[in-house]
Each structure stands twice: as structure tokens, then as C-alpha cells.
Amino acid sequence: MSEGMVLHGRGLVKRFGPAVALAGVELAVRQGETIAIMGPSGSGKSTLLHCLAGITKPDEGEVTLLGRRVDTMRERERSALRRTRFGFVFQFGQLLPELAAEENVALPLMLGGVPRAKAVTQAREWFGPLGLGGMEHRRPGELSGGQAQRVAIARALVTGPAVVFADEPTGALDQSTGHDTMRILVEATRRNGASLVVVTHDPQVARWCDSTVEVRDGRILPAAAVAR
Amino acid sequence: MRTLELSWRLLRGGGRRELLGAGLTLVAVAVCTALLLFAAGINLAFDARSDREAWRNPVRASDAVAVQAVRHGFVADRSITVVELAALKQGLAPPPGLSRFPAPGEVWTSPALAALIERLPADRLGRRFPVLAGLVIGDEGLIHPGELVAVVGRAPGDPAMTWLQSAESLLSTGPTRIAGFGGEPSDMAVGYSILALIATVLMIVPLLVFGGASARLTVARRDRRLAALRLVGATPGQVVGMTAAEAMFVAVLGALLGTVVYGVAVPLLAGIPIAGGTWFAWDLLPGPQYVIGVLLAVPLLVGLSAVVGLRRVVVSPLGVAKRETPPGMRFVRVVVTVALVAAAPAVASGTASVAALVLAVALPFLSIAVLGPWVVGVIGRITARSARGPARLLAGRRLMDDPRSAWRTVSGVVLTGFVAGFIGLLTPASGLLGDESAGRLQIEVPAARVAETADKAGERLRSAGLAGRVETSGKGDHRLVTVVLATEETATVDRARTALAGLAPGHSATSPADDQHQGEVMLADVRTGTIVVLTVSFLVAIASAGITAASSILDRRQTYALLRLAGTPLSVLDRARRAETLVPLAVLGGGAILIGMSSGAALAPGALNGSGMTTLLVCVVLGFCGVIGAGALSRPLLRSVTDNPAPRPD
Description:
The structure holds two protein chains of two kinds. In chain A, 34% of the residues lie in helices and 26% in strands. Chain A is α/β, with parallel strands linked by helices.
């Protein structure tokens, strides 16, 4: 394992029927690194994220997290991994509408066995720093789009994950709110020593990251091609 | 027209899951329709039986045209109704089922009696009706196809038409001068009709709840879609129209399917013996006006239920799309419930009419339906507040968030709990009437003829080769001649009955066990009815719970998928789902059983017994297991909708 390497995908191939979504992708993520995966719709960038995050099993290739194979794990183990070592931020619908904002943030802790009172107390600590003070009891439907994304960021980070995955995290927001959300996402992730993998088609979003890879037709383009 | 077209396109374009939801609704409506037709059919069938039997209950008249006497004999533990008729005028209209008025000496028999006479040895039955000329009583004169009936023609002066009846006779109606064959319904027929009506009320409320719930099976999906339509400018009228059109389109198909299913099931249902026999299939077929009524009412109910379910969308296009905290259920539901429960005993004791009785059963029933969602909300608040783990927190919040939806899952079983509490404890124990002797055949005779009749009885026994002794008893004008047989074996008793036939004009030799025959049949029928009502109610309820559980997964698949994505084990999701159903079920089901028991006890105090308690316990255990089983059946669906947990816009 290379020094500082957290997550590594090698030779990843994924097919959906006759369509090839990933055609042998290689991607390494170092500790504390932020990477943007860019590409047009249907290029395979979301599939790459799902394979790296243990949501989907690749047909070929392997994914390792801190040297442990993820792709060969059983569903139960992958679930536990997603719960404890990964965090997720998506474009829409990621908060449970039935739960208050603080309960949404506390949920991953409770799923890990932390008693409710302690989990909620821990969850509340995230609200002030993310500019969400006073919104602990609100339902997702009573939050603005930017506020809901910040709650999702708190939820992704509350368990102290190794890697946070974000799929078009600003896709449903206006430019200014999207800008703020990305700033908060990157800063909070760095502050917690986690790595960040962001899937986006927006160059403005990619600019927040340390590096960018471009996916086309299921393959990662060489760096020179990206620069062009 | 445009609304209809758009609804159809949205339904068709909704994909496999939308069609699956529609399919579930269709099946639920079909079951509901078939059972509603059965409820209508069985009530009409009892009425029809009562009408066909009425002519055998003579009503005394001053302007008499005929004399009629009715008695019951027995063979092979079955009752034979013997109607004796004598014309006082020429050219009289015949009674129902006969093509002409029977001439003196003629014996008309029902097809079942004729077949039995053929089958059994003459000394068991045939010799009781010596002059047979192949005269057959038609169906319109019979209660049920297997009924044993004989109509005997007599002359007005025949001793069988002139004897005087004592007050105690249970199995005969003495010669009565009648003006026609209008008759009147028997007490037994009225009793059966009332029991059928009560059973219908008990079954119909869970059925209506089921039908209504089925309309909202896919309400969350529809809610979101229609909220989106409201956002782009659809008027409330258009939204209501589309919802009603979509729900009713499926409901009409379901109702038609249910009608066909009922039609196919009728021959099977007709084979279930109640009140001494099976049914004429056409008795169980409700007339076209009832079928059309059900076919119109069911889709209307379904459409109405769907529209009511959409109130929040119509009121605010953002209400559902944004999933705000829903308003709490109103406390007024509690007030209404208390009023309904309190009113029930007052209604029951006020009058003795059938309507009051039905109302007394329906009011507490209705009260549970009104209170249910409110209680679910309260249970949700308590569960969420006291939850320590994620499963109970999710369950509690879900119950708080949408108590009506959670109520729909359990309402069927809860209302069936009321039915079980109501009739379960009232199930009559077997052997309630005691065990009377079948080997003591008694004939009532005038005091002056006791000795002569006793002598003749002894002679007839001896000539028939039967062992036994003859006793006499009683005081006053009417005495009893009792033949005590050495055995109670049915064939021997039948031979003794045949040997004693005609000994006292107008009387059959009957035993104390015969006196209780009708009562025993009715009690057995009440037991059968209880089992049928409970089985149907529980099956409906469990089917309802299963369908609602499946649709609830479809409606919330995005939530489940997100939870899986965040690493929630399937078992936690399943536990949350189970808690959502079982916690309210335990609380509300228990309450409903208690209300049912108190309502039943108010109508029939002192009827509680151990056998009823057993029935009730069996129902509770089976009902609870059924709901758990129905929920477990949808676990593969939960697995499949969370298999690929990547979120996507819905």
C-alpha cells in the first residue's frame, strides 16, 4: 500500500447489461485529499463513486480501504463499512423526512450503537459550526436547500469517516448557495482529517478540490487531456 | 375527458411498480366486492327461506277456506315437516310448491324425502306415508334443497284435522282454520335473519375500511406526483378529478372481477349447511339491483377515499412535496368516540327493534374506527420519546408523521378484534341444552284415550319386533304415552316411530331429544357462523395488513434505500417496520377486544363461557401471527427495493 493511501480502486469494470459503465478504471485517494470526478452525463462517474463506496460491486477489479478489500466483502460487512468509515452527501432526498434535523445527524451514531441521548448531544455540536444554530428541531421539509445540504454534511461527518463521498452536492442549489455549501463541505472534511471524493459536472465545484479526474465512456482520461 | 386521459397515461407510464400498486388495489377491491355481495346474498337468502317457509306457519282466520295442521317427525336424526291440509271450499289455490290443492288421502313429498323413502327400509320411513303417487313438492315450497317435507291431503272431518292442541307442544301446530297460505315467518327464521344482519354489520365495517384503505395503497406516490402537478398549476378540481378517475378506473375493474369471483364461488358457498340444510344457489345470488348497487357503491367509495386522502395536496401544493410536520389529530375524535360508546347500550336497551340492535353493534364499532388514528398518533409520540435505538425512533416518528397510514395497516385486524371480542365470548358451548334421551318416544293423547293408546302402542312394538315398555304420565285433559325403548340406536328408534305412526291422529311420536333438535341446530349454526365471520374478518384483515405493508414499502422505498445506503442493516429496517405495526396493533387490538366484549355482554349478559374464551384466545393468537406473517411476506420486497441503494429522484 502506498504511503498515506486510504482508498484504492484498481481495474474497475462494471457492466449494466450490454452497456459498459466502467471499462477498467484506476483511482487512488490519499488521506485528507479532495478529488473531483468530472464528466458528462452517462460517462460512468456516479458508477465509479458507487463502486468505491461499496454501494455497488464491480464486475472486475478491486477496491481497498486502508488495505482491506471492499469488493469481496459480504453485504452485511459493506453496510457496516458504509456506516462507520464512509460518509455520504447527495444532491437530493438524503434526509429522512420523518426525523428532525438533529435526529437525522444522530442516526448514523445510533445505528452504530451509541445511546440516543449521547448521539443527539454529539449531533447538536455540529449545528453551530455549520451555521445551523436553532434548526436542530426542524424537519427537512422546513429547511432551505442549502440548510438541508449542511445537515447532510454534518450527518456524513458525525461518525468520523475516513472518506466522504459527495454526488453532485450542489446540483439542486443556486450558484451562491452552492459555493457556500462546497466551502463548508471541503473545510469541514479537511478539519476532520477525512478524504473527499466529489462527483460533479460543474468546473466551479471541481475547483474546490485538490485534484480533478475526468471520466469519459467509462475510462479516466489522461491528465494532459483533462488539462486541455 | 382530458383529466381521464392524463390519469390513464400517468397510470400506464408509471412503470412496473405503479402497475403493481394498481394491481394490489384491484385485488383488494375484488375481495371487498365479493364479500359485500356475499353479505348481501346471505341476508337475502335467509329472507327468501323465511318467505318460502311462511306458509307452514298457519294464521287463524275467521273467514276460513281450509284447515291446516303442522307437525314434525324425525328419521335418521333429521326433521320431517308434515303439513296436513283439508279444503273447506272447492277450487282453492294450492300452497307454494304444489301444482294443486292436495286431495284427501294424497301425500306430496319433497324430492329429498322421496329419495330417503326409496333408500331406507320401509319399516324405518316408508310405511309412515302409505299412499305415495309420485307427487313432488317444488322448490318454491321448500326452505332448502335437502329439506324433508310431506304434505298430506285430508278431509275436514278427519281426526287428524280436529284434534285439540295442548299449550306445551313444541313440535306441532294443531289444526288451524286459515284464509290462505300467506302465513307468517317463524321465530326461528326471524332469529336467523337477525343473526345474519349482526354478522353482516360486524363484517361490513372491516370490509369498508379495507376497501377504503386499498384506494390509498399508493397514496404517497400519487401525493408527490399530484403535488408536482399542483405546483405547475393544476387546479384543485383537476387534481381531485384525476385522483378519483385513476382510483375509480381500477376500482371498477376490481369490482367486476369481484362479482365474477363471487359468481364462481356461489356453488361452493351453497354447499355450506346452515339451519338444517344447504342452499339453493339462486338464493345466494343477490338480484341485479343489489349487484348494480355494489358495483356503483364500491368504486364510489374507493374514489371518495382516494380524494379524502389527497386533502393536503389540494389545500397546499407544497404540503406533501416538502413533507412538513403534519398537523396533530384532533382531540374531538376522543369526544366522538366516548359519545358513541356511551350511546350504544342506551340504544340497545331503549327498544327491541332490529334497527336498534344493529345500531348498538355498529356504534362501538364506528367509535374504534374514529379513535384509531388518534391513538396511533399518541402511541407514536410515546414510542418516539422513549426510543433508545434507531428502529424504535424510526417507528415512533413514522407513526407520529402519518398516523392515518399506520392505522390503515392495522385497522382491519383491530376492527376484527372487536368482532372477536363481541362474538367470541358469546360462542355457545356445545351441550348447552343438556343431553336428552332419544329412546323415549312420547305421544300426546286426550285423557280418555290413554289406556287404549298405551295398549295399542305395546301391540305395535311387539309386532314390529322391538323391545321396550310403555308408560303413561300427566294430569288433566292431555296425557303422555311414553314408549321406552331398550336402545337409543337410530335405526331402532326410526322403526319404533314408524310402528307408532298414526296411533294418535295428528301426532308424531317424538322424544325429549327431538324437542331440542331445532335449538341444537341453531346453536351449532351460531357456532359455525361465529367461525365463518371470524375467519372471513381475519382473512380480510390479514390480507389488508399484507397489502398495506407491501404498498408502504413501495411508497417509502426512497427512505429505505437511503437508510440502507447510510449502512443501516436490513434487520433494523425490518424491526422498525414491525414495531410500526405491532405496537399500535397490541394497544388498539387489546382495546378493541375489550370494547367488543363489553358490547357483547351488554346485549347478552351472562352468556360468557369457557368455550367462547377459547375461541377468543385462538383468534387473538392467530390474528397476531397472521399480521406478523403478512408483514414478513413483504420482506423480500423490502430487500429488492433496497438492493440498489443509490438515490434517484422519484
